[in-house]
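Lab notebook, bench 4. The sequencing result for the construct came back, and we need a structural model before the next group meeting so we can plan mutations. Quick request posted to the team channel:

Model the 3D structure of this chain.
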Amino acid sequence: MARNVKNEERIRQIYETALNLFAKHGYRKTSVVDIANELGMVKGNLYLYALNKQDLYEKAINNSFTGWQSRVVEAMNNVEDIVDKFRIMSIKAYDYLHQNKDLRIIIQQDPTIFTIYPKEDRFPKINKNSLEMIRNLLKQGIEQGRFKEVDIDSTSEFLFSVYIMFIIRTYGKTEDKAARKLFITGLDILIDGLRK
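Done. Here's the predicted structure in C-alpha cell form:
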C-alpha cells in the first residue's frame, strides 16, 4: 500500500513539474529532456509515464484538472444546503484558475484546451465528471423541492457552457478581473432562476 502511495506521489510530481515547465517555456520550447532533467531522472524513465511529449502535456493538464475537481468536491462536501452547495461548486470551480498560475498560463498559451463543442473536447472524461456534478446537484435540488423542475441534461449542458465561456473570457488571453464580478452576478441570476 505504501508503495502505491509513493508511486502516486511520484506521478503527481512528474505531471506538476511538466505543467510548470510547459507554462514557463511553452509547449514548443519545452522538451522531454528538460522535464527529465528538472526531475533528476533520465528521459527514458519519463516514457514509463507518457508515450511522448504530447501525451505528457495532456496528462499534466488532466492531472491539474483532476486536482481542480477534487478541490471543488471537497468544498461542496463541507456544505449541507443544496443552494449553497451549488454556489460553492460554481465559485470554487471558477476561482481555481486564479490560484493555479501554471494552468492559467497554459490556458492562455493554448486556448483550445476549453471548447464549447463536444467533438473538439480534448478532456472528455474531465468534462463528463463536471457535467455529472452539475446534474447531481440539480437532481438533488429538484428532489428536495429547492429547485424548479427542469430538464436536467439540457440545463446541465447550458450551465456548463456558460461556465466554459466565463473561463475563456476570464483567463483566455489575460486575466480579466471584471469578468469575476460579471460571473458572480450571473451566478446569482441563474440560482434565482433555478429556485422553486
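The first helix runs from residue 2 to 29.
Will bring this to the meeting.
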